[in-house]
Amino acid sequence: MAERVKMVPEAEATGLTADLYDRVRAATNLPFVPDVFRLTSTTPHLLDVVVTGYTGVFTDSALTRATKELIATWTSRLNNCDYCATTHTWFLQHFGGSAELAETISHATDPIDLPVDEPTVALLRLTSKVTSGSPDLDAEWSEAAEVWTEEQLLEAVFCAALFSFINRLVTTLGLAAPTP
Question: For residues 124 and 112, is the Cβ–Cβ distance under 8 A?
Fold first, then answer.
């Protein structure tokens, strides 16, 4: 699928867009700006929202980067967002997730199917409900709250909600999954 919006090439970025591209490169530690950010590059105030969300969720905090990458990958998988699922599977492995986990996540239908511990299963059950938009998540919240702090739960919910938003943006605007 072709992108449905124009993306500002890095070499042509000026003003706020150029500044935000610099923030993206610094935050991702990549020498380029990934296309997911460039999707909103013609409208810098929207690009700022995407960059701020990304940098906020992936800042060192109560959850490890690997846990947040797992949530991002799982959420993207549930939302059938190939671009984000592929990208964050790579990041998951880069930040400590096993190859077995990366492989299993591509076809699992329930967190219990993943090679993770019970606390992580509980967290992914909660984020699955967030991803689906279900208002009925009291049981999942209670189960996760037995082993995760309130700050960790808030970060997990924010990560799942942010990636649901990003997944919809990516799929609606036609960004194709990167090829290996």
Answer: no
Q: Please tell me the number of Cα atoms within 13 Å of 8 on its side-chain side.
A: 19
DSSP letter (8 states) at residue 35: H
Q: Do the beta carbons of residue 14 and residue 47 sit within 8 Å?
A: no
Query: For position 180, what pLDDT does the model report?
Result: 58
Alpha-carbon distance of 113 to 105, in angstroms, equals: 8
Domain 65-173, CATH number (from 3.40.630.10, 3.40.50.300, 1.20.1290.10, 3.40.30.10): 1.20.1290.10
CB 157 within 8 A of CB 127: yes
Contacts of 162 (CB under 8 A, 6+ apart): 53, 54, 57
Q: What is the largest CA-CA distance in the chain?
A: 50
* Percentage of residues in the chain having pLDDT higher than 90: 91
Instruction: Record the pTM.
Output: 0.92
Statement: residue 41 has pLDDT above 60 = yes
By three-state DSSP, how is residue 136 classified?
coil
Cα distance between residue 39 and residue 3, in whole Å: 8
Across the chain, how many H-helices and E-strands are there?
A: 9, 0
Q: Is 2 helix (H, G, I), strand (E, B) or coil?
A: coil
